[in-house]
Each structure stands twice: as C-alpha cells, then as structure tokens.
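### Sample
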Amino acid sequence: MSWTVGDAVDYKGYPADKSKTGGWVPAALILGIEICERLSTMGIAVNLVTYLGGTMHLPSSSSANIVTDFMGTCFLLCLLGGFLADSFLGRFKTIAIFAIIQTLGTGMLSITTKLPKLRPPPCNRHSEDCQEANGLQMGVLYVALYLIALGTGGLKSSVSGFGTDQFDEKDEKEKAQMAFFFNRFFFFISIGTLTAVTVLVYIQDEIGRSWAYGICSVSMFVAILIFLSGTRRYRYKKSSGSPIVHIFQVIVAAINKRKLNLPCDVSMLYEDTPEASRIHHTEQCQFLDKAAIVAQGDFVNGSTAPNPWKLSSITRVEEVKMMGRLLPIWATTIIFWTTYAQMITFSVEQASTMERSIGNFQIPAGSLTVFFVAAILITLAVYDRLIMPIWKKWKGKQGFSSLQRIALGLVLSTIGMVVAALAESKRLSVAKSAGRNTSTLPLTVFILIPQFFLVGSGEAFIYTGQLDFFITQSPKSMKTMSTGLFLTTLALGFFVSSFLVSVIKKVTGSHGGQGWLADNINYGRLDLFYWLLAVLGVINFAIYLICALWYKPDDKKMPNKGVVQMEKQQLNGAEKC
C-alpha cells in the first residue's frame, strides 16, 4: 500500500499507483488548458471595448459595461463549475466539458467577427448617420461571448484543484512538487495573459480579429487533446459533496429549530466527526448552534445516520461560522476589482485616442495592458527576492500577512485612480486645445503607464493576499468553496463597475448633455469618474481596516486548540446557566 495514494484512484477506479499516476508530468498537461483559457479570455477582454466601439459603433459607456459584464460572468460562473465538479461530474469531466464549450465559443466569435452581415457597415463612429449594431448582430455576439464565459467559469473552478490532486500531501517529495506546481501555476497564468495582450492583440488589430479568435479556438482544441492524452496518468479524488449544500443544510436545520432552547452544556450538542478532525465550539453566531440540537425525527428511519437537513454536527456548524467570518473581508475587497475593470475598458479607450507610435511601429491600444502584467511580475519578484528577506530579518516573519497584502493592494489601487484622474485631466486639456474630434491627440500614450503599474502592483498584492487568506482561514472541507468565494469578489467588482457606469451615465447625462461618460470621451469628464473611484477607495479602505481589526482577535480563537479550550468553554457555559 506504500506505493498507492490512499485518497485517490486511477482511471479504472483502483487505488492510484504512485509509479504510474500523478506527479509533475500529468500536472503539466493540466497547465496547458489553463494557459489557453487565459489566452482566450484575456485576449478577448482587453481589446473587446475597441471592437464594440470601432466596429459595432456602440457608445463608450455601453462598450465598457459589456466588457465588465462579460468578465464578471466568467468569474461568477466559477461557482456553478465548482458545484457541478463537487456534486456530480468530478474535476476531470468538468474540465473536459467546459473546455469544449469554450472552444465552441471562441470558434463562434471568430465566425461572428468575419461575416460582414454580423456587423454594421463601416462609418465614422461619431457622425450622425453612423448606424449601431442591430439586435440580431449583438445577439449572436452575446451568444459567443457567454459561451466563452461559461467555459471559463467551469475551467477556473477545477483546473488548480485537479492539478493539486496529482500530488500526495503525505509524501514529502510530492508535497515539495506541489509547492513547485503552485508557483508555476501563477507564472503560466501571467505568461498566458502576457501573450494575449501583446501577440494576440497585435493580430486582432493588424491582421484581423477572426484570425486571432480562430487561433484561440484551435489552441484550446489542441490543449483538450493534450489534456485527454493524460487520462491514464491522472489521479482522481472522490468528492465529499458540495460545500454550498452543506452550508444550506446547517442554515435550514437552524431555522427549523429556531424555537428550541440551547442546552447549557455544549457537550450535549450533536457531534459525529472523528476527534482528529473536529472543530470545537465557539460563542459567535449561537443561532446556528441550534442546528446541532438533537430532536425527535432527526435520524433516518431510526438509524444512527442523521438527516443532514435536520441535524448537523458541531464541526459542520463551526465550518459555516468560519465561512461567515470571512464575509466582511470578502465584501471590502470588491471595490479593488471595480478599479481593475477600468484598466481593460476606459484606460484602453484613452489609449486609442493618443499617440502610440514608436518609430514606424504602432502600439495597439489593448497592448498597453502589457505594463499591467509587467507590474504584477516585477512586484512579485521584488516581494519574493527583496521584501521577504528584509521582513524576515526585521520582524522574524515570512513576509507580510495576508491581511497586510490586501491592505497594500487597496492602497495602491486608490493611488492608481488618483494618478489616472490627473492623467485624464491632462489628456482632456490637450483634446480641448487640439480639437475634440481629433482622431489622434498630440500626447504620448506613455503617460498612462503609472496608472497601469500602480493598479497592477496592487493586484499582485491583493490577489495573493486574498487567495492566502481565503484558503488558510477557511475549514479544510471547504477549500474549494473558499476559492470560489474569492473569485466572486472579481465577478462582483466587474458588476459594480457596470452599475456605477450606468448610474453616472444617467445622472450626469441628463438635460440633453452627455455627462462624464460621453460617447466620445474627448467630450466627457472621465477624470471625475476616476476621482469618484478614488474617493470610494478611501472610504472602502477605512471600512476594511475596521473589518481587519475585528477579524484579528478571531485568529487567536481558531479551532483545534485542544481539550483545554473545550473545557473552558463548557465551564463558561455552565456559569452562564
């Protein structure tokens, strides 16, 4: 049995043989899918706003909202993919099915951008007789985009988890390989993004969008074949059920027993979890404790197995409490991703109006996000090689805590919006003097680099900080759920951006004016919109600090402190009675 993995099976359902399954090679095959997914999603997202405005002739605010809604849906559907993987399909089938869906979506998008009937006739976007895309043309585009979003959601929810399934945590050698896999996973994500915002965006602008999207579709198809070729080499782990279902079971049981009184002694509450895996009772959210009160009819047909919708163990209740304590931090990180959304929408539109030439080479507007990716890679390298060693010598700790990294990300993104507002003020002053209808303003696009760098550096801190926080502070049985919770902050950030744009467009565009977010941004006040985001960032950071300070004491009350902690709680409960 030393040559098998206890909690994994091979493709035939037998215990997985270490010599024939798992390890770095199968994990590398899985990484291929992630690279192509990132190439497709980011290659479409960073340059979609220019297609919607320049080819489909949509207003700038509408174009920005379509992009942010698309990205938000991509991340929101991670919850659906995770639920299906945990409850029905398993990670392998989920990846295969949703990869095929994304391939179909990119293929359809390639055809959509190629056929003349699926886009309006060319014209000057800001002229009065310019015709916007009709309902059929936009409908076909939406179907293609949301097929891609569905595929992305299913893939993102399972790729990293299936990759880690290839390593045995109980084997020291494979545990070290798993750490190597995590490092390379984020690196390959960045490589895929970097390729998307440089090579793919250049092909879109200079050769044709249909060619670029066709490359995405073909590369994803090849990645699927490579992924399936490793079927015999993969390790498969059985799911213990969806954490979302477990959470609802506790809540439903607590609501049904809301009229019952809690016992004075917490040891009278139901517990069937093995001692080594138990989470001891805490005093917070005592309403949920009622789910662990044993009542008549809680057991199935008189057996020892409880009905999970009527009775939950203390450990299951405490898991829900732990997830609940994450929510304040979760809520205060959404505004960062609202700021991030501007980097792939309005910042790209800004770039499209400015001088982008280097000699005879014209930089595509969407490729300005390369500075965003570069900022992430540089920040991670500086943090890993410079900040962490210094911090360890000074404080004796391995770098900043997860909450400190999140705080740094929020601060940098807020400063980024201040810098973006100042840069836009400069651009608008040039537009006023040169003529607001001038196609290319006499102003270098490189003044936008600071805002890309600041928000990019912020993402490097907040992404790793959030991932670390949600994984380490969540119960072991809900790691997948906590990762999905983290990804929903990205989704909601994009949706909040769409909401803000719609509100600002309606409020400031009344009385016949175009307001802050005019169809032609040279006539608008995008700088005021950036100032608004900066103010919201300051308010959000203040709330975050309060939530972080509130969460700090809970770190000292983390579960599994031992029998002494349990006895103290029981004594306290007896004294209250």
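Residues 298 and 310 are 6 Å apart (CA to CA). This sample (Transporter) is used throughout the tutorial notebook.
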